[in-house]
Design goal:
By secondary structure, this protein is α+β, with helices and mostly antiparallel strands. It has helices spanning about 110-130, 155-160, 185-195, 205-215, 220-240, 255-260, 270-280, and strands at about 1-5, 10, 15-25, 55-60, 65, 75, 80-85, 85-90, 100-105, 140-145, 170-175. A five-stranded mixed beta sheet has the order 7-4-3-10-11. A two-stranded antiparallel sheet has the order 1-2. The protein has a two-stranded antiparallel ribbon with strand order 5-6.
Amino acid sequence: MLEGTPHDPMFKSMHNIIHIDEKWFYMTKKSEKYYLLPDEDEPYRTCKSKNFIAKVMFLVAQTQSRFDAGENETFSGKIGVFPFVTHEPAQRSSINRVAGTIVTKAITSVKRDVVRSFLIDKVLPAIREKWPRDDLKSTIFIQQDNARTHINHNDPLFCEAATKDGFDIRLMCQPANSPDLNILDLGFFSAIQSLQYKEAPKTIDQLIDAVVKSFENFPSIMSNRIFVSLQLCMVEIMKVTGSNKYKIPHINKERLERIGQLPIQIKCDPILIQEVKNYLNME
């Protein structure tokens, strides 16, 4: 993740790394706070059990956004958000629909074959469609965590699909037990979930629309802040020799961004890097 000279190292821009991860999004929370006008009615919420609120798992793919010299967005970095659902005809009639109506059902058990099919049929086509045309020859890495349901980086079906149309797309895994090394866990998921909770979905389809809308409405400029936090976390991890006993550092990124001094690449102390290398050689 480092580049530059040994005396002046800095983190790579990571423009060619796509972070993917899965997350459950719930229809609502157990308790909600509403600010209402005097003549407004309190929203009426129902579910069969507050301990089993309807939910859908989503696969999200995000990379770093890009801007030109005039701070105009050239690439949002948003590859896509993909719900794990199926569409089946209703088996019997109800007050909401007649038998045979196509309904959306959440996949409650996401296994390796499902993840593989989503990567090949949804994520890879989205990358080919949205990736900047002037950067097609670079190698693109998809970073995933080490969940058991994830495919291996050398999965033959994925590797075959990843080289179509002249693309060079590869899988890699983040270090185990390191959620702070994935921008989705580091801040992106919580940000879009807070936007999603502003909606009031009552069906699975409405929940999907709310999550997709929140994903699209998330400001691209804020994803750069999360990438800066990612690099700062890498520095802290090196300081504690690979442990997770550290606090996420804060450098007032919003203020730096406002005055035009928020860096895309963080410099790293060469002495710290040498200490880490010596520690690894001892191991």
